[in-house]
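Table S2 (text version). Query chain:
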Amino acid sequence: MPPAASSSLLLLTAALLFQPLPSTAPKPLFRDPIHDGAADPSLIYSPAGKKWLMFYTNRRADVPGEPGVAWVHGTRIGIADSQDGGLSWSYQGTAEIPYGKPGYTHWAPEIFPHRGVFHMFLSIVPGTFPDWNAPREIIHLTSRDLHRWKYESTLDLGSDRVIDACVIQLPDGKFRMWYKDERAKDGSLHYADSPDLFHWTPRGAAIAGLRGEGPKVFRWRGRYWLIADAWKGLAVFRSDDCLTWQRQPEDLLSQPGTLPTDRTIGNHADVLVNAGRAYIFYFTHQRGPDAEGHPRVWERRTVIQVAELEEHDGLIRCDRIRPVAIRLASHP
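Corresponding structure-token output:
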């Protein structure tokens, strides 16, 4: 080999060996700087801002002396943004939702883009309550820029206690929503269908007997998947038609992790399929070792984490300890 070629080969080899490793997501991925109670994340790309946005429930985890569960109520939806493909997130304030009176509670935003319009399906509790015995409803809002929202309607889903919407478009062009009906006796996860995102017809239980909340449905690896918060980890189901669901034996994030801020079970998640890879964004309470040296109410604090999903032989798993190299493309 000529000396010049040998020298070039050595330089190329050295360059490959000393390339920086892909940046990995921190733990936590995001911590709300106002109330330290970020939960129920929902991610969406903003074409106008050329960045990713995270809308999330912002619970008042830092407020002392609240009776019962009043601290879970009374806040607007928080927003964080990422200009580096989901690697780092910055707090941007709260969503401008033109609905409700002071003290109303906004929970679990679901944002679905369709033909240049963003549709938000938002859970509403009409006030700040010290217990769970209050009416709840899901409202529909629209926006063209993810900043200014217009109230469209309150959904009639046949119950006065519905929360946690999730929406996808079916192959026939119609739309399906999954949500939690707290009045239901046949399982709390129900579903409804719509021809246009504005008019919805409730269809009953999505999975008979299942008690859970925070459903997330997505298509990946040739199947539909449904992940729901079962309060002991995240239950996972698969389907070929979005009607008949088969539960996998192993729940996700049911065992506490070992890394700081991620040492409790995973809760209410969003899943983003991007460039063929699937990322799960979930929240964790700051209990156990993460609460040591703090008052007991520190356990109310929650943070957002991310892990990458893996699918093998029809089963989904994730390793919450493994570093996540994330760089979201602007278009999945």
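Notes on Table S2: Confidence is low (pLDDT under 50) at residues 3-21. The longest strand covers residues 302-312.
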